[in-house]
Amino acid sequence: MFQDILDSLENFSLKDLHHFKDRLDLLIKTKKYKEQSTLDKRISHRARVKISGTAMIEREREFFDLAHKINIQEMSINGLVLTTRATVIQDDILIAIFRIPSSGEKKIVNCKVKRVKEIQLNRNTVYEVSAQAVDKSEVKAYRDMLKKRGK
Question: Domain boundaries in the chain?
Answer without folding.
Answer: 2-40, 47-148
